[in-house]
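Extended Data, panel c. Modelled sequence:
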Amino acid sequence: MITEKDVRDAIMRATGLVIVRDKIELSINDIQKIIDVLPEVTGDFPITSVCRDDLTRYNIDIDKVTDSDMACIADKMCDDYCDQLYWESLGVIVNECMSLPKVGEAREDDDDYNV
């Protein structure tokens, strides 16, 4: 389990900033450094993101899209991707496109692995 201290330590290592009483000011460069170090802390590696500019493809007035709207879209995109493509795509990539070492047999579809 990731603790608050783990996150604070990762931020301080990535940015050199000292967090005092939960108050820090971050530049865009600091935020990027934090994003870059997150896999070290969480063990998760980001796949993609969604931004307002992506919505222009569908003629959405992005000036009127709230952060809450974007969070909802991201949540639904995550669910859709995990339900439809994630496991199949992951299997194709690691089995057909890369030479990763294996142990044992591949697991059958397991609901515990679905996000």
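DSSP finds five helices and no strands in the chain. This feature is highlighted in the accompanying rendering.
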